[in-house]
Amino acid sequence: MHARNLIAIFTSAAMVIPAGPAQAGIRQPLVVSPNPVGRTPHVLDGIVNAFAQVGDTVIVGGQFSRVRNAGSRAELSRQNLFAFSLSTGRVDPRFVPRMDGPVLTLAPGVDGTVYAGGSFTRGLARLRLADGSAVQSFTATAYGAEISSLVRRGQHLYVGGNFTQITRTARTALARLDANTGAVDRSFTVTPGGGETKITAMAVSHDRLVVDGSFTTLDGLPRPQLGVIDLTTRRVADWRTDAYAPGCSAAFPSYVRGLDLSPDGSYFVVVTTGGPAPRTRKLCDTAARFETYAKGEKIRPTWVNHTGGDSLYSVAVTGAAVYVGGHQRWLDNPFGSDTAGKGAVSREGIGAIHPTTGKALAWNPTRTRGIGVKAFLPVKKGLLVGSDTTQLGREYHARIGMFPMP
């Protein structure tokens, strides 16, 4: 199905399948192999929205109820969250929390824990990997709201969503918490505004927090859908682009989705939905690179890669490649409008872009498109992919797969 046929699906599903968060970190010297490993477990229904890694353990969040080990017929009940060993691929039998709503975002915690955010009752939780129990000393809650992005930097946990308060402290869409206790950091007060305010995705480095979402301002300063926060001053950085000010399709009043920083934090890439916009400067259905430490009011993307009418939801920047995923059919397609325009290359459901030139790399494993890739996680051993479909690299890998390093 192309973008026009999926508008109704995306509109109704937008609250439960946001893009995953990102944190600058893993650098990979090479592009991963196009042949997935055979040991990852299978998620048998629903969708995978998020990954986090704590040691050898990978935590998987989404909206699902059943999983299965590779090579096994035994189905295991797992309600929206489970864990498996990265080295063996086996599902962890101890970690069985029951989340009463979708898990939309995850972040690795300290002392063998993981943070989960989403549309479940509390909205935000810190869980022990040893048994799936909640850490009671972590008291942050976001009742009645959706937590769509989490990133941790040291003793700080950055929380994004559509909330108006965390526990009993007023905060709109963005907050910084104590990573141990969940207490709101009152010294961090950057506030998004405009429209139905929501942070969709975030990425953090040692001194910058990059955010995108449904907002037009940060602390009253014009920042349409994208902004950079200086963590040394806890103020909005002198960094502004109007690249996402123009509207795309009326079905997508806010169209930014995934976001990831390069391993050294010097640049980041944003992916979008929005509908076809051929032969224009609009960044609908694109991946675009921006320089983190550029300054000024008229920052333009370093490069833009167009799908020609199909949404991108997730991005992972590893140094060797910029991996993008959605339900796209093509990359290098600025002249297409749900068609393959001049120069377009086929990249069904997943692809890789050269980080310097912005052109599609030869890597082309393919995946069944469905709604799209909702989660990437680069690890030392490869690249984890989470989605809603079962074919990855022309093999059966239900909703989870991993491309290894060559």
Comma- or semicolon-separated keywords:
38% strand, mainly beta, globular, disordered N terminus, 406 residues, 5-stranded mixed beta sheet, 4-stranded antiparallel beta sheet, Methylamine Dehydrogenase, Chain H, 1 helix
Q: What can you see in these coordinates?
A:
Mean pLDDT is 93; it is low at 1-23. The protein is globular. With 406 residues, it is an all-beta fold. It has a single domain, classed as YVTN repeat-like/Quinoprotein amine dehydrogenase (Methylamine Dehydrogenase, Chain H), CATH 2.130.10.10. It starts with a helix and ends with a strand. A hairpin with a 2-residue loop joins strand 32 (375-379) and strand 33 (382-386). It is built from one helix and 36 strands. It has a five-stranded mixed beta sheet, with no helix packed on it. A four-stranded antiparallel beta sheet has the order 23-24-25-26, with no helix packed on it.
